[in-house]
């Protein structure tokens, strides 16, 4: 993200996750109106826009497949769930080799 301003330094203070800044603090002959200066501009690059879109899309996707969990849970409770020992062993070896 590119931020363009008049080159003035903006005093920033903060506690924890709260950040406060006064754009006009320390700048002579500029009244503190509490409003944004219309000459201020923010430009988001194409990469930034794509990243923002991707983050929004991912926020809508659940990382947990509830239906699959319920299916496995039911199979365990009924005694029908079987473990493929060979597949588990292969995946363990693969994950160790990646480390």
Describe this structure in words.
Strand 2 and strand 3 form a beta hairpin. The two termini are 34 Å apart. This protein has 99 residues and is α+β, with helices and mostly antiparallel strands. The protein folds into 2 domains: 61 residues, no CATH class; 36 residues, no CATH class. Helices cover 41% and strands 14% of the residues. The strands form 2 sheets. It has a two-stranded antiparallel ribbon. Strands 2-3 form a two-stranded antiparallel sheet. About 6% of the residues have low confidence.
Mean pLDDT: 75
Query: Number of helical runs?
Result: 3
Helix content: 40-55%
N-to-C series of helices and strands:
EEEEHHH
Strand content: 5-15%
Tally of domains: 2
What is the molecular shape? Answer: elongated
Taking the alpha carbons of the first and last residues, their distance comes to 34 Å
What are the low-pLDDT stretches, counting only 5+ consecutive residues below 50? 14-19
Q: Strand order, biggest sheet?
A: 1-4
Computed Rg: 27 Å
Structural class: alpha+beta
